[in-house]
Structures are given as structure tokens and as C-alpha cells.
Amino acid sequence: MKKLFNILIALLILFTVQTKAYSAAIDRTISKSGINKGAVSVSVKDTQTGKTVYKLNDKQPSMPASTLKLITLGASLDTLGKDYEFTTKLYKNTNNELYLKLGADPFLTSAGLNSLMEKAVKEKKILSPKNIYIDDYIFDTTEWGEGWQWDDDLNPLMPKFSSYNIDKNIISVVISPTTSGAPAQIYTTKFYPVTFMNLVTTGKETNIELNRNNSISPHILTVSGTVNKQTTEKIPVNNPKRYFILRLEDAIRSAKMDYYGKFVQKKTPSSGVYIASEVKHPIDNAVKAILKDSNNYVAETVFKLAGAKFVNNTGSLEHSQQMLKAYFEKLGINSDDIKIVDGSGVSKNNIITADFMTDYLVKQAENEILKNNLPTAGEGTLKTRMLYFKDNLRAKTGTLSDVSAIAGYITSRNGKTYAFDIMINDPKSRPNDKKSLEEYILRDIYTSY
């Protein structure tokens, strides 16, 4: 018995020594990087036991950037269900009135809206409706996330999101050269009321800059620079509802429906109506867009839709936060020290800890939908990164100004799987240096643990 006890003690000492050696390797990697150690938060946990195998500033609040999508999507999927469909429906009542019930579908396009109206005309013979109402109550009127930066207004990665989602809430601005030294031609591919302050000349190179001042002239876009070949710039629409109404009018004309009235906001009655046509898209599309492509617009829409379903009412940030809190309680995770104010991680008001993220990831280790859709090396946002790990890594990246993060799962050379989170918030280091440090920390985990 004493001999067995001594063996156990020896094994425990050996394990402790090895663990300290592995931790020291990561510590050396961080020290050699030149990045302030106090700006780096790391947590690594065994997915089988939940035990922490490495930590550095793991309880320190930090900005998760787009790694937050792991959390908000997981909670949203639990609320919406894996079979959820984004749906836009057209109802008709016995008084020959139509109700267009919006579903905030992030995949709805102008072509889809055209199809919706054409189907109503061809299959239900709806040619001259008395009125067309729009039921937009699925979302509140807030179209941007809390703490989003005003100067990102023209960032195509951050369009507004609303009940009136269509065409990704993006318009295309085409800039074409004319003759040398003369002003360029500028136009939109779909009609939208915008005035161009054209300061672009035809030159030897293409170098375009776009500016808009929403507080002074939201419908004037200043375009400056030079152009030598036709180029297309994608910009967010500043008024999604106006853009949607224009596309709806196009769809009505395309379907040869005789209607020239207004579109009044009104809830769809619970009785006395029937579905004339509908357009649907599966939630699977959103999972891939959020995890592999880190699509902020889709992430925000799904998060808000989950909040709407959770309270069976209009979607809002408050309702989404209530949904999140309930989900954390369901998982048994304490969320007192974190703050989540959007679904995408764009806001710098989002605060979590590395310890919280890895707790969450351990709880989600058997969630095949999340794990199977996380990009591995060479895919999505990891297309040119982490190639060393091949199929041993599945992770979500995150980037904001001064912030770089990565979180997910890694299977070590010894065959053990770990949940990890790395957040680096250091304004003095270059983005590439932050991303390099992330990879070297993961190499240490892969080779040592």
C-alpha cells in the first residue's frame, strides 16, 4: 500500500513538473513576442474534465471582437432551433387587402421579393389589391449596435440591420472612366435616392475615396480620387426602409400588379387571412455565414430574432440579453463579470474574460452544429492562417482596431482536445504581430499538451 502511495505521489509530482514546463513554454513565447504580457489574456481547458491547463490574465475583462459570435450564435440557435427558417410572407384577407409580414430575412434579395409578388399574381390571381400593409413588428427601430463607431458608416462589413433587410442592405456604386482628365461617370446599379459630389477624374490609376456626413447631408455621397478602369464600391444604405420600399415597388411593377397606393404599417391579423406566397431561407445559411465568414449583418439579425422569439414579441437588444442570460443559466455558467451588447462583437462595449469563453466552449464541446461549422486551417477567416495545424484546429477569429482574438478547439499531438481563448488588446503592436503570437501560443499547446 505504501509503495502504491509513493507511486501516485511520484506521478503527481511528474505531472506538476510537466505542466509547469508546458506553461513556461507559452510564457517564453509571449515574452519573446515583444507584446505587453499584461495585454494578453489566455485560457486553455481540457474539454473532457473542464480543468484549466494554462491561464494568463484569464479573469481580466477584455474585448472579444468577433469571437463573441461563438457565444451569441450558440444561444440564438438554442432559442430558434436547428430547423428555423427566415420567412417573408404575403397574406390576403377577404377584403382583397394584402399584408406583407417581414421576417428580417438577412438572405432576402430583390429577386426573392419579385418572386413573392409574382407567385401571388400567378397562383392566387391577386391583380388589384385595395391596400398593401407592411407588418414590420419583428424588430424595433434600432438599426445599429450599441457602441458601434459613427465613422464606420460606409463600412460594407457593418450595414444597418432591421425588419427591412434586403440585398444585404448594401448598394453598388459604379465608377467608370471617361476621357483623360475628365470627370468620371458615377451611378448606382439599383435606383436609390443619393446625390454624388463627383470629384473623381479619369487618370492613370484607380484610387477612390468615399465620404458621407449623416449629420449634415445623409443623402450626399462625396466621391473623390482618380479612376482608370471601371470599379464598383459597395456601401451600406443609410435608410433600409426606404430602400426596401423602392424594391417592393419594383416587385409590384415586375409582377404586373395594379397598385399605386401607400404602404401603411399594420400588424397581420391572427385570423381572417391566408398565405398568398412566401419566401424562405434555412438557418443553416446563417450558421455558415457567421462562423466561416464572420458576417456581422447576419450575426446581428439572428441575435435579434432569437430575442424576439424568446419573449414572443418585437426583437430588441434588451430581449436578446434576456435570452442570453437564460441560456447561460441553462448551461450553468456565471455571467456576472461579462457584458454583451451586440450579436457580432463589433462594439467595443462588449466585455468578457478568457475564463468565461473557455467555460462556455467546454459546455459546447459536444455541439456538433457549432464545432462542424467552425473554420479549420485554410477555411473562411482562417483561409491563409494556421496551416500548420491542418484539421486539428477549429476556431473563430476576431479583429478590431488594437484587438486580435481567437477562440475554439485544438487537438494536440497527443490526441487530447482543448478549448482555448486568446485575446490581445495592445494598441502598440501591429496586427500581424498579434496574429503571429496567437499562432505560436497554439503551437505550444499542440506540441506540448
Secondary structure elements and pairings:
Layout lengths: L1 H32 L6 E7 L5 E5 L11 H13 L4 E9 L3 E5 L8 H15 L6 E5 L34 E7 L8 E4 L6 E8 L4 E7 L3 E11 L3 E6 L3 H15 L8 E3 L7 E10 H9 L4 H16 L5 H15 L22 H10 L4 H6 L19 E8 L2 E9 L5 E9 L5 H18 L1
Parallel strand pairs: 4-5, 5-12, 8-10
Antiparallel strand pairs: 1-2, 1-16, 3-4, 3-13, 6-7, 6-11, 9-10, 14-15, 15-16
Concise summary:
By secondary structure, this protein is α+β, with helices and mostly antiparallel strands. It is built from ten helices and 16 strands.
Overview of this protein structure:
It is built from ten helices and 16 strands. The strands form four sheets. A five-stranded antiparallel β-sheet has the order 2-1-16-15-14, sandwiched between helices. A five-stranded mixed β-sheet has the order 12-5-4-3-13. About 1% of the residues have low confidence. It has three domains: 210 residues, Beta-lactamase (3-Layer(aba) Sandwich), CATH 3.40.710; 102 residues, D-tyrosyl-trna(Tyr) Deacylase, Chain: A (3-Layer(bba) Sandwich), CATH 3.50.80; 71 residues, no CATH class. It is of the alpha+beta class and 449 residues long. Helices cover 33% and strands 25% of the residues.
